[in-house]
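> call design_seq(struct)
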């Protein structure tokens, strides 16, 4: 039931009422051990905000997080923190240019007081190897590395405290296409070896198709569809997902149902009433303009959730 609302002042030199930006609205999902859940949506859909909430970087306005059965609050976050790490989109901005790689990777250990200095050094050296960087990377600085290598450094840093879950916020988007599959393969390999869970945030459904178990589709801060990957790709239920898939070129498959999406996503400052997708939805009826649909199973498919009055 996570919501994140930003209060944007108002009454200042622009006058007017205080405004509320509803970045995330009543979103619920679970991620299993060793599972990869993709969080997909256009830019501005709230996916990074939601990722930051899961990683403990952004407190939710409402709702609760649970980790291994325990509600995360002021008392329980400190213990859970090492188990939930994040990798950001921009491998250039995410690494302190003044720190050698060894210090960058050891940082979460140092901050949380995990291990002795000697143990941290040994762990850091092992991690560099695990993510496929040369051993001499330890004494070098971020600017000496390519984008793909920097993302490996960021992944090593996330792995340092031996996490259970990694939030990966568009980890491939800033990389050359030729490098993307290498980093993706590394993430897969690490998952198999370490039993990691991923919340994999992406605007790119084609990338998602290679890694994930389930897909959550976000639109204007709302979860509109949540389904096992194959079901979502083969039989999308929600008109928005159908439109998204329609835009993805795929080889050897018939085109997904639905039409190309029209118009732009409305502002989260002023979401439409009823179903927030109705101004753009080719299937919209009167009820859609007044009543918000709830996320519930598609007919005959318990694991396939869709928020639409006329779900397929
Ligand atoms: Fe479209 Fe109505 Fe379904 Fe919303 S509830 S996605 S407007 S058909
Ligand atoms: Mg983002």
């Amino acid at each position: 039931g996570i919501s994140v609302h930003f209060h944007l002042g108002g009454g200042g030199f622009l006058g007017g009422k205080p405004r509320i930006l509803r970045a995330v609205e009543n979103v619920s999902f679970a991620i299993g051990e060793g599972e990869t859940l993709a969080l997909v949506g256009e830019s501005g859909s709230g996916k990074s905000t939601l990722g930051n909430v899961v990683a403990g970087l952004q407190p939710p306005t409402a709702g609760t997080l649970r980790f291994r059965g325990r509600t995360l609050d002021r008392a329980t976050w400190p213990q859970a923190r090492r188990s939930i790490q994040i990798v950001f989109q921009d491998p250039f901005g995410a690494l302190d240019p003044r720190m050698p790689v060894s210090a960058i990777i050891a940082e979460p250990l140092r901050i949380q007081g995990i291990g002795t200095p000697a143990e941290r050094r040994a762990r850091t050296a092992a991690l560099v190897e695990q993510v496929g960087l040369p051993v001499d990377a330890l004494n070098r600085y971020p600017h000496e590395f390519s984008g793909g290598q920097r993302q490996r450094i960021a992944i090593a840093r996330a792995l340092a405290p031996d996490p259970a879950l990694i939030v990966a916020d568009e980890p491939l988007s800033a990389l050359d296409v030729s490098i993307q599959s290498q980093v993706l393969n590394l993430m897969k390999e690490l998952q198999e070896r370490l039993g990691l869970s991923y919340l994999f945030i992406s605007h790119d459904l084609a990338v998602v198709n290679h890694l994930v178990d389930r897909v959550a589709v976000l639109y204007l801060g709302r979860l509109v569809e949540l389904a096992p990957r194959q079901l979502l790709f083969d039989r999308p239920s929600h008109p928005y997902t159908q439109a998204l898939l329609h835009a993805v070129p795929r080889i050897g498959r018939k085109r997904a149902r639905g039409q190309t999406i029209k118009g732009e996503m409305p502002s989260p400052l002023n979401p439409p009433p009823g179903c927030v997708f109705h101004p753009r939805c080719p299937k919209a009826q009167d009820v859609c303009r007044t009543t918000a649909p709830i996320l519930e199973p598609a007919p005959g498919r318990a694991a396939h959730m869709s928020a639409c009055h006329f779900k397929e």
